[in-house]
Amino acid sequence: MKATIVSADELKKELSGYTPDHAEEFHEKSARLADKKFDALLKSSPHSTVILMSGGPASGKTEFVSAYLLDEDALVFDGILPTENGAKIKIDHIRKSRKNVKVYAVWPEDMRAAYVAFLHRDRKFSDRHFYEKNADARRTLLCIARRYPTAEIHLFSAHIWKASSVLRRL
Asked: How does pLDDT run across 78-130, given as a tens digit for each residue?
């Protein structure tokens, strides 16, 4: 069975009036839609594994999903995972549904190169968004590792996508 992907960035394209030049204006609404779709699929999906993507804008998450996860038998949430509360809610819902949870974090090998890629994307966001969300994703990943010491967390280096470590306990 192929992966089922939920992506706020893809859902933006379905919103009335959306253009990539104004992506930031549509982000909250598409994130809420992604959360709702994720919750519905969590209840109805036959997948026994759920993969939560983690990483800031232009970190390489979506490319990683396209390159490595499309053929996985999993429900994949392609997002930043920027808040501790949002991560807790998702993980608790996954566990309540008796599905296995994995977190795949993709971090840029070179933050400067990621920023250049961010500037050249079609979807436009503020510089502040880039830096805050990259920091938020890292902070949330640390929180997940602390709060869920048995959670399976994989950390990948963007552009090479080699597993650089598996975090279990910090």
From this structure: 999 999 999 999 999 999 999 999 999 999 888 888 898 899 888 899 999 99
- Using 50, 70 and 90 to split pLDDT, how confident is the model at 49? very high
User: In terms of Cα–Cα distance, which of 67, 66, 144 is closest to 105?
Assistant: 144
Please give the C-alpha separations between residue 110 and each of 58, 104, 117, 127, in angstroms, as whole numbers. 11, 18, 11, 16
Strands (E), the chain: 4-7, 49-54, 75-78, 100-107, 152-157, 163-167
The Cβ of residue 66 has, within 10 Å, a number of other Cβ atoms equal to 11
Whether pTM > 0.70 for this model: the answer is yes
**Per-residue burial over 32-57, b = 16 or more CB atoms within 10 Å of its CB, e = otherwise:** ebbbebbeebbeebebebbbbbbbbb
Q: Is-contact 167 153, C-beta < 8 A?
A: yes
> Quick count: other Cβ atoms within 10 Å of Cβ 151?
18
Segment among 53-57, 73-77, 165-169 with least mean pLDDT: 165-169
User: Measured between alpha carbons, how far is 86 from 94 in angstroms, rounded to an integer?
Assistant: 12
Helix 23-44 to helix 84-96 angle, to the nearest 10 degrees?
A: 20
